[in-house]
Amino acid sequence: MSPILSVRGIEVSYGTIPALHGVDVDVEKGEIVTLIGANGAGKTTTLRTISGLLKPRKGSVSFEGNDITGVKPHVITKKGISHVPEGRGIFANLTVHDNLELGAYLRKDKVQQSEYERIYTLFPVLKERIKQNAGTLSGGEQQMLAISRALMSKPTVLLLDEPSLGLAPQMVQTIFRVIKDINAEGTTILLVEQNAHMALVTAHRGYVMETGRIVVTDDTKALLASDRIRKAYLGG
User: Fold this and answer.
1) How far is it, in rounded angstroms, from Cα 145 to Cα 100?
2) Is the pTM of this model over 0.85?
3) What is the CATH number of the domain that holds 172?
4) Taking a C-beta distance cutoff of 8 angstroms, is the pair 171, 186 a contact?
5) C-alpha separations of 161 from 27, 67, 83, 121, 164 in Å
6) What range does the domain containing 213 cover?
């Protein structure tokens, strides 16, 4: 069975500066796959290329067997890939409810009340904040809203870029528990995360990136047990 999402040999540059050198990533339906690596390794660039925000110089991205290389971001979202960017990107001057509604903007079907209830089950605090402007939420609540807004587009694959960035440890635990719940409900996830330990204990498989290249790939148990990975990314 072919992967639901497949990245093949992508090369991306920012101006004359190369950022990705022939990156290959596969994600199977139902998996959580994580990309780990130091700052500047190319993790965010990989996600931005998949979601259409960047166009590769070489290589291809395919989704459900169809080539989506260079397709516009809103078309990719309609096809079933939602991207929660680093820094969350919520609409701070709109209410929580308005942000959720905008998440469903590209859909042709009607949003059901049960979909809002699903969000409130995943993140009960958002129900309490539903009429508040998103800019008044805490960092953790804004991250919850960013993930929830992406879920409103009913994605098949969810791209998460640094969901724990800047959050208190307790909030990090909450976010990662919900990531597992979302996956258990059937959403495939590609996760970029600076907190390598949390990423590896949450995901099924991992790719390690260094200076725009994939240098190691394995299931997460093997990566957690690797001396090289422990020393480089897990502080051990």
Assistant:
1) 8
2) yes
3) 3.40.50.300
4) no
5) 16, 23, 8, 23, 9
6) 5-233
Average pLDDT, the chain: 93
164-177, pLDDT tens digit by residue? 988 889 989 999 99
Number of structural domains in the chain? 1
Neighbours of 36 (CB within 10 A): 27
Q: How far apart are CA 198 and CA 201, in angstroms?
A: 5
Q: Which residues contact 54 (CB under 8 A, 6 or more apart)?
A: 12, 45, 48
Cα–chain-centroid distance for residue 236? 26
